[in-house]
Input
Amino acid sequence: MFFTKNFGMGGIHAEDFKFLTNHKKIENADVPNIAYIPVNQHLGTPAEIIVKEGQEVEEGQLIAKANGFISSNVHSSIPGTVIKIEERFTSIGKRSKVVVIQLKGEFKKSGKILQLVDWRSKSKDFLLDKIKEYGIVGLGGATFPAHVKLSIPKDKKVDTFIVNGAECEPFLTADHRLMIDKSEDLLEGISIISTILENPKVYIGIEENKKDAIKRLKILSSNKYNIKIVPLRVRYPQGDEKQLIKAITGRIVPAGKIPLEINTVVHNVSTVIAIKEAIVNDKPLIERVVTVTGSGIKEPKNLKVKVGTPVKEVINECGGLKPGVKKVIIGGPMMGFAQMDLEVPVTKACSGILAFTDEELSFYKTDSICINCGRCVISCAFGLMPTYINKLLKYKKFKEVIDAGLLNCKECGCCSWVCPAQIPLVQNFKLGKDITKKLKLY
Amino acid sequence: MEENINNQQQVTEESVKYIISTSPHLYKRETTKNIMWLVNLALLPAAVFGIFAFGIYTLFIIMSSIAASLVTEAIILKIRKKDISLDDGSAVLTGLLLALNMPPGVPLYIPIISSIFAIGIVKQAFGGLGENWANPAIAGRVFALFAWSKKMTVWALPFTADAVSSATPLGAYKSALLQGSVTDGITKASGFIAGMFSGPLQVYQTSVGNSDISYIDLFFGFKGGCIGEISVFLLLIGASFLIYRKIITLDIPLSYLLTALLIAWIFGGVQLGNGYFQGDFLFHFLTGGLVLGAFFMATDMVTTPITIKGRIVFGIGCGVITMLIRFLSGLPEGVSLSILFMNMMTPTLDRIFKIKPMGYIKENKNK
Output
């Protein structure tokens, strides 16, 4: 255990509860009758809607166009009629324009045998255009448009490409199942990205609690000389981009810079598979694998869900909620968002739907006094001093707080997790970031 | 930032109530309260041993000290219009630690007044839990030591019927040293290792008139000393429990003990005329409050630095000051004073040993 790669300082080891779903194959979820497709499912500017109310759309038709470079196309996940364009809350708790589509007509792609595209004969620009056109974003949770990450400036040469299969969030098993159920697709996706990045060294980083995935990928990639499977120690936040790079290559991304700075690109397992599907199967990003789990779900499952399906329908497909559910979270338990109701649609960012009864949450935050124990400092993988930053925020020292590195905080939640005084550190940091942004301190 | 304290709010929507809060949604189930009570628990074996060793009167010392702590805490919290949070275990811990640092025959008013001083002045006057500048128990003990120095240095041998007055090992050694009679009656064993361990223990043997006392006796607690510090064995068991439960980290205790013992080994033999690297570090480890101090008092979270580097320097500082006092001052024992002094250094250490964010780039000053 001491020989497996790890990111060095900080981190936590939480009970992962992955046994609930890690043996369950990915199933296709039912098609929603009405899909609510937000145009703001990615990092950057929201996409511009190009359909009108009453218009008929096909499966996979472009309904909102990328607005600027850091933006992404949005496609219809079902065939049907646009019945409304309205404002709704999305799963991150912000309002977004939503295209409401009533199911009607025929699926022309799903379930049909399609001719595969021979991508090897195509140019690099064609591949990049396809990724851009089909609205591929980072599916690990950050939803950064994939084509931006893969467009390498001319003066840069990427020598390392890391596939992120760490999935360090407790409870989630979507990437784990993808690595097993779709391992061939994953390897083909890696070939595509390798072509775009001009043959870098490829590493697939997988946390050690996914032994079956490591074994399977090792066998399948044994004839590929440039792919290396790297087992990683089970430690949160191993799946963070910067920590993963540090664990696998030993390189450290300079603070406030992107991994490209040190000639590295990281993509999530599910993003790689989405890229493969976009290019080989000619399919836009209209569905994703979601882990539906937690103590409040009757039959936890890994489901392939159409984007825009209301969370309620997905949960009903897993046997519904148990009585006494206290909290519903979209995303992982460490970085996900608590939901007000179950009407919010599944988006490209939604890696998990968790419902908790009291079991996990018996520990309500009460916020007491900091006893200076330093546990948050030891747990921070980004080398920050959470308690110090929190005190600066408390006394409204916003200039100093920037110097103390508030902007390096990734809100991974380790500090809040360990804090014995139950101080909502992450919450204060999020607020602090908003305030300092409004004060234009950065 | 006050507006976000209430981060739990129930949202009602179509008869469904879900809790809305920011991430993370999982927590390690460890609270300040847990930590404090577990430290209390870890001290219990040593305390019980003290009661058996010195008789039922020591139980009254412990009880009165804890009671005084609790009452003072409650009254002051009431005056400050705060929640009376006696169940968090911190006041109990202060009282217990203070009592464990008292000589076995001390009059009851000393632990009571010291507790009031520790909680009232050192802890609550500076803002209560989390804001105190020194470990209250240590400040209380030092207060008592200087206020009633005679009564605070009356010692007894454990498991004796009528508490025969007797010096502590360090006390006997120090008084021999001060009288210049330290080398009298010592038969210096030959050989490097044997020579090392033949000095201070013989002084103590002569002082109590019992030449059978060995290091094993010192280890298990058959020696004079404060109520809680005599059984090094039980203190180490308690400390291992805390380390196993990850309540305390090893950085402070290890750096403290290693520094102290290294200094004892290097310079301890000089006063006995043995030269350098001939000191009896085992004697210094097993006597006095070194183990109690290193594992239970120097690890007090509130008054120690938050970064690991800072903590190691804290431990080294404690070790150096302890041995300076033991060797060069008129006092036999320096653990509490050294920790008290380093507590005062904590804000400075925190300022010096800040950690840098990952990937931190040194800023160009010309910018």
Remarks:
- Residues 148 and 164 of chain B are 20 Å apart (CA to CA).
- Residues 32-54 of chain B form the longest helix (23 residues).
- DSSP finds 15 helices and two strands in chain B.
